[in-house]
Amino acid sequence: MSIAVGNILEGVVTGITKFGAFVELPGGVTGLVHISEVADAYVKDVKDYVKESEKVTVKVINIDDSGKIGLSIKQAKPDYKPHNKNRNNSKKRIKPSFSFEDKLAKFMKESDERQQDLKKNTDAKRGGGKGRI
């Protein structure tokens, strides 16, 4: 049986690591189910979800140039719905309520007020200001 991306196959878990589980597929080839592809929920320990020698249904999600096979248990389930990673990009952009000119005018006004306050404070410390003629 040939193994191609998208195939759903039965396999046997042959090893478990902290980053995933190795599954032997028909034909004696082995693939890896990464920890992120074990379940829809957060997986802290792969051993909580699969055991060695357990039969599992997996989906082939990639085969790289060196022949390594990437597998997924969660994508092999019939009720799997992929998450839309671009969901935030689909929202319409909200136009700013102030134009650049409005923001610049506000900044200039606040800046002038700060400069006047600073000048008053420094003049008072020097003994200048209202008493001088």
From TrEMBL:
SUPFAM superfamilies: Nucleic acid-binding proteins
Domain called S1 motif: residue spans: 6-74
SMART domains found in the cross-reference section: S1
Region (Disordered): 76-133
GO terms under cellular component: ribonucleoprotein complex; ribosome
GO biological process: translation
Keywords: Ribonucleoprotein, Ribosomal protein
GO terms of molecular function: mRNA binding; structural constituent of ribosome
Family: Belongs to the bacterial ribosomal protein bS1 family.
Function field: Binds mRNA; thus facilitating recognition of the initiation point. It is needed to translate mRNA with a short Shine-Dalgarno (SD) purine-rich sequence.
PANTHER family tied to this protein: 30S RIBOSOMAL PROTEIN S1 (PTHR10724), SMALL RIBOSOMAL SUBUNIT PROTEIN BS1C (PTHR10724:SF7)
Protein name as catalogued: S1 RNA-binding domain-containing protein
Species: Metallumcola ferriviriculae
